[in-house]
Each structure stands twice: as C-alpha cells, then as structure tokens.
Amino acid sequence: ADREREAAFTGPGRTKDGQQVPLLLNVGKAADMSDDGEGVGLFRTEFLFLGRTASPSVDEQETAYRELFEAAGDRKVVLRTLDAGADKPLPFLGLADEENPALGIRGLRTARVRPEVLTDQLEAVSRAATATGADVWVMAPMVATAAEAAEFASLVHKAGLRTAGVMIEVPAAALHARQILASVDFVSIGTNDLSQYTMAADRMNGELADLLDPWQPAVLSLVATVAAAGRDLNKPVGICGEAAGDPLLAPVFAGMGITTLSMSAPSVSAVRASLATHTMADCQRLAELALNAADAQTARKAVAGR
Ligand code: PEP
Ligand code: MG
C-alpha cells in the first residue's frame, strides 16, 4: 500500500508548496545508476581501488569515471575522492598499522602519505569530465579543518576542475562549517561518520546502535549548524549519509535548510512522497520539534506523530 501511495508522486523532490529539494543517488559504479534520481550526490570511488596490489592507472580510472558520467547524462555528479582507511583498508597504500584506524590516516588524510594517489585521481576525473562534458563536483572525505578544505580546493582547481567541496563528517568540520564554506563551493554531510564521531560510538559496533542514531539531538544540532552556515553563505549543503534516505528525517532536514538529499535508489520514492506531503513551513516545524527533543526516541516519536 505504501508503494502504491508513493507511486502517486513523481518528478523532482519538492515540498507540498513546491520548494525544490533535489533527490540524488549514492552510487559506487555505473550499474548503480537509476533514472529515478536528479543526479548523483555521492559517487563512492573506492570500488575501483579495492582488492588491488597497486593503484589503478590514470587511464583506467578515466575509463571508469567516464562510464559513470555517461550514465548520469546531463545530471550533476558529486564524486568523492578515495576514502581509504579505517573500515575501508587499502593494502597498496602501505599505511602503517594504527591503534585507532577510525581516528587515523583515512580519507583525505591518506594524501599526507601518498599525495600522488589523490593528484592522479583528480587528473583522471578532470579528463573524464572534459571528455563527457559532465557537470562534475568533486569532494573530499574526512576533512577536519578549514585549511584542509582550502588545500583540497586548490588541488581540484589545479587539476582543471571547477567545483570543489568537502564532506562534513567530523564534528570539528561541522562546528566550523562557515570557515570551511568560505573556501569551497559546497559541502555534503556524511551522517554515518558524523554520528560515529559525535557520539564516539564505533559505526561497526551493532551494540551501540542507540548512540549511532542520527536522531540523537547532538547530531541533529550539528546538521542544523551546517545548514545555517550554508544559508548564510548561500552555498549548497547536502546530506549523503544513510539518514538522508529516511522518509521521516527528510522533511526535518529540509526544514533545517538542507538543499539536497542523496540516497540509494530504492529510498527515493518514499522520500519524495514524504517531502511532497509537507509544506516548507511544516518541515520547519518538524525540524524545531526534533531539535528540541530531549533524546532520539522522543524526537522520532514527535515527528512521526505529526
Ligand atoms: C558517511 O559517512 O555518512 C558517508 C556518506 O560516507 P561513508 O558511509 O562512505 O563513510
Ligand atoms: Mg563517511
């Protein structure tokens, strides 16, 4: 019955009163593309690197990126540079064993050790973007400081790419979203890691699921902080963690001022239907309810009850 109700809503993501909230796709390869999505909000590029004894060549990467860009057609693609380390180990990077890999050399930090892996990747992305004419936005994972964001943006521009952004998945970056947005064009919130690092709860540990809950008031509060910074600087703030695909949270995020939601293809229709049944004023009320709740359960119940 839910599926039937959802099917009544088609077209771009928008609230009941017509405010656009584009619904984008999280993909790992061209085969993950779907027509049901206004673009790609997170192209995870790890796929190409996994199980390798050496980094894929620039040519090989260019081919893979072209394939995805062609599948996206004239829709925008947000490509995330290699997010290795921690839960995505890559032996060929030759990183030392660490006591606390989640707090170690991962994401953008791997460029401290192997800078050429990042510059090669940007070169391949740039060639693929030029060859296809695709609207490619590039973002870095695991950024903690405004200086890292600025450095990344300069590498992206040096590679001949126009649009640079970073993921917000470290609490420090959320708190300094304003400073970060000063040197990049957009940010995208990774609620999976943002929850892990805000709550100091390992995302791989099922016993801590209650703490990893994106409805935790502290996590929602950081999301709202980032959204507010984006509004003030007039720059896009997306969400690409799993929480973006939750039809109950989608109007809450829209009400905070989040500009795009990116999710796996099967989540799109439920999120579209949820947004379409709330006006932006409803969304703002839901955001306020969630932000003012004492705990995650109360927040979820308060929003579900509306
Ligand atoms: C996230 O952390 O929310 C995210 C989208 O990235 P990943 O799950 O790949 O770490
Ligand atoms: Mg992440």
List its salient traits.
306 residues; alpha/beta; eight-stranded parallel β-barrel; 13 helices; 8 strands; 43% helix; binds phosphoenolpyruvate; binds magnesium ion
- The DSSP helix count reads 13
Class by SSE composition: alpha/beta
Q: Describe the biggest sheet?
A: 8 strands, parallel, barrel
Round the mean pLDDT to the nearest integer and report it: 96
Q: Strand fraction band?
A: 5-15%
| Share of helix, binned | 40-55%
Spell out which ligands are present: phosphoenolpyruvate, magnesium ion
Radius of gyration computed on alpha carbons: 19 Å
Give the overall form: globular
Which regions contain 5 or more consecutive residues with pLDDT less than 50? none
How do the SSEs run, as a string of H and E?
HEEHEHHEHEHHEHHEHEHHH
Give me the count of strands.
Answer: 8
Beginning-to-end CA distance, first to last residue: 20 Å
Strand order of the largest sheet: 1-2-3-4-5-6-7-8
List the topology elements:
Blueprint: H1 2-7, E1 23-27, E2 39-44, H2 58-72, E3 76-80, H3 110-113, H4 115-132, E4 136-140, H5 146-158, E5 163-168, H6 171-175, H7 177-181, E6 186-189, H8 191-199, H9 217-233, E7 237-239, H10 249-256, E8 260-263, H11 268-276, H12 280-292, H13 296-304
Parallel strand pairs: 1-2, 1-8, 2-3, 3-4, 4-5, 5-6, 6-7, 7-8
Helix pairs in contact: 2-4, 10-12, 12-13
Catalytic activity: L-histidyl-[protein] + phosphoenolpyruvate = N(pros)-phospho-L-histidyl-[protein] + pyruvate
Cofactor: Mg(2+)
Enzyme class: transferase
